Amino acid sequence: MDIKVSWAGEALFIGESTTGHKVLMDGPSEGGGHDLGPRPMEMLLLGTGSCSCYDVLSILKKSRQDVTAARVELSGERAETAPRVFKKINLHFVVTGNDVSEKHVERAVKLSAEKYCSVALMLEGTVEITHSFEVLAA
C-alpha cells in the first residue's frame, strides 16, 4: 500500500490513497490552518471507526440480522503534553434494525475488536480501547 501526502500551504495537506482517492486535511486557524478539513488525529479516529463499523455490519449481515442503519461514535482522550497521543479511545456502536439481537451485536463488536479491525488492533498495547453498543428498533 502506497500513500502520498502533499503539502498544500500553511497547515493544509492533501492525502492520496493507493486507489487514487483524495482527502483534505487541515489544522485549526490558531495553528496556521484554515479549518478546511479534518486534523490528522481525527483521521485516525475516522479510520478506526469505519474499519470497525464495517466489520460489525459484515458479521451482522452473515448472521442474517435485519440492520437498517448503523453508526459508531468515537471519543478519544489525548495526553496533555507532547506528543499528544491518544491514551484512551471508546467506540460506541448504535445499530438500528428489525428484531436485531443484542447477543449478535455484542458478538460482532467483540469479533471486530479482537480479530478483524486491523486499525484498532494496530493501536492495541499503546491505547486503551473500549467498546459499547446499543440496539434500536427501526
Task: Compute the number of helices.
Answer: 3
Task: Please state the structural category.
Answer: alpha+beta
Shape call: elongated
Overall mean pLDDT: 96
Structure overview:
The chain has 138 residues and is of the alpha+beta class. It is 32% helix and 35% strand. The protein has 3 helices and 6 strands. The strands form 2 sheets. Strands 1-2-3 form a 3-stranded antiparallel sheet, with no helix packed on it. Helix 1 (40-62) crosses helix 2 (102-116). The protein is elongated and about 50 Å long.
Descriptive terms for the model:
6 strands, three-stranded mixed beta sheet, 138 residues, alpha+beta, 32% helix, 35% strand, 3 helices, three-stranded antiparallel beta sheet
Give the SSE map.
Elements: E1 4-7, E2 13-16, E3 22-25, H1 40-62, E4 66-78, E5 86-98, H2 102-116, H3 118-123, E6 128-137
Parallel strand pairs: 5-6
Antiparallel strand pairs: 1-2, 2-3, 4-5
Helix pairs in contact: 1-2
Outline of the structure:
This protein is of the alpha+beta class and 138 residues long. The chain is built from three helices and six strands. Helix 1 crosses helix 2 (102-116).
